[in-house]
UniProtKB/TrEMBL annotation:
InterPro entries: PLD-like_dom, PLipase_D/transphosphatidylase. GO terms for molecular function: phosphatidyltransferase activity. This is Phosphatidylserine/phosphatidylglycerophosphate/ cardiolipin synthase family protein. CDD domains: PLDc_CLS_1 (cd09110), PLDc_CLS_2 (cd09112). Residues 135-162, 297-324 form the PLD phosphodiesterase domain. The lineage of its organism: Bacteria, Bacillati, Bacillota, Bacilli, Bacillales. It comes from Jeotgalibacillus salarius. It comes from the Bacteria. GO terms for biological process: cardiolipin biosynthetic process.
């Protein structure tokens, strides 16, 4: 009897802690950064992107600031560290910021990896301070700023899997942007803010075609709904994890009801065993409402993108799941640049060609498995 009482109290505490954390984490629909002019290059191949990042670091003369959720202590991670150490020895200030949990294996291996001259900081240490919710909050951003003139934002982390060298998850599909122009000032501000653990006041206005969107001041749930409501003809959503909140799911239903064509692309091969069955209830309901849902079959689909009416796109670090919408620190780029939208559209078509369209009967109901997966998977 006492066992069940304790279990009930723990469950109650977790629920109350979750609700309190959500309330504390709630932010207005505002962006800390104005719309600005920029020039961007789109990448969907990890080998090409990694080569570009390395070239930009090689050519750095003043500063290199790099932030990743995951930096693996494998050959890819060691290669980047070797380059960063070399630049530090040349007199370039090099700062590396990593999530304490996402890059936990790198942190453990750090004593065996040369990092002399590189200033390393781990964000969000996994320490209990009275709240389970706050322990779950991860820094999921992938941001690199070189000489305050070049920035990289997107879905790629550092590891062999992102270079098509994982035996199961190859080829790896992701979307990433290399940015130059005025927006790099905001990218530098974002890195400095995270490094110093400072907040930033939101701004409004601007007349450029690019906008950096940080979860620091943006309520991701409401912001995504505001994007979805702009759609008049079509919405494309690409995400490795698809577990939307009730509010976001309602926005998708309303879009379909108004005649908007909704296309969703998710992986066929998961990288986590629980998140895929946790998504089935949502994908099943979308199919029933008339959405086109595809599962990627050729490798692993890790890209995070929203494309509205082929006129506006959102590329960055935010997955279409509750963790990204409600908890994590994320960083995305919104743009109406026709060249980037064309590049993204071509990549989407290529990925859809390697995907299978799902029918209502393809995601068979498995109540116990799906419920168990949802209870845990929506927090992974």
């Amino acid at each position: 009897m006492k066992f069940f009482v304790w279990i009930s109290l723990i469950v109650l505490w977790l629920r109350l802690d979750w609700l309190a954390g959500l309330k504390k984490n709630k932010k207005p629909i505002a962006s800390p950064y104005k719309k600005k002019n920029a020039k961007a290059t789109f990448f969907d191949d990890g080998v090409e992107w990694m080569k570009q990042l390395e070239d930009d670091c090689i050519n750095a003369v003043c500063t290199i600031d790099i932030m990743f959720f995951i930096l693996q202590p494998d050959d890819a991670g060691k290669r980047l560290m070797k380059l960063l150490v070399k630049k530090a020895q040349e007199g370039v200030r090099v700062r590396l910021m990593l999530d304490a949990i996402g890059s936990g294996s790198f942190k453990k291996s750090l004593k065996h990896i040369s990092h002399e001259g590189v200033i390393i900081q781990f964000s969000r240490p996994f320490t209990f301070k009275g709240s389970w919710f706050s322990m779950q909050k991860r820094n999921h951003k992938k941001l690199s700023v070189i000489d305050k003139k070049i920035a990289h934002v997107g879905g790629f982390n550092i590891g062999l899997e992102y270079l098509h060298l994982d035996p199961v998850l190859t080829p790896w599909r992701d979307y990433h942007l290399r940015l130059t122009g005025d927006i790099t000032q905001d990218c530098q501000t974002e890195f400095d803010r995270d490094w110093r653990e400072e907040s930033i006041e939101p701004e409004t206005g601007g007349s450029g075609r690019y906008q950096l969107v940080s979860s620091e001041t943006v309520d991701q749930e409401d912001f995504i709904c505001s994007l979805l409501k702009k759609a008049e003809t079509s919405i494309f959503i690409g995400s490795p994890y698809f577990i939307p909140t009730q509010k976001v799911e309602s926005c998708l239903f309303n879009a379909i009801k108004s005649g908007v064509k909704l296309t969703v692309l998710v992986p066929g091969t998961p990288d986590h065993p629980l998140v895929q069955p946790a998504s089935y209830r949502y994908l099943r309901r979308l199919i029933e409402k008339g959405a086109d849902v595809y599962q990627f079959q050729n490798g692993f689909y890790h890209a995070k993108a929203i494309l509205i009416d082929d006129k506006l796109c959102d590329i960055g670090t935010m997955n279409f799941d509750r963790r990204s919408l409600l908890i994590n620190e994320e960083l995305n780029v919104i743009t109406e640049d026709k060249e980037i939208i064309l590049s993204l559209s071509e990549s989407i078509e290529k990925d859809l060609a390697n995907a299978v369209k799902l029918n209502q009967g393809d995601l068979k109901l498995q109540p116990i498995k799906e419920t168990a997966a949802w209870c845990v998977g929506h927090l992974l």
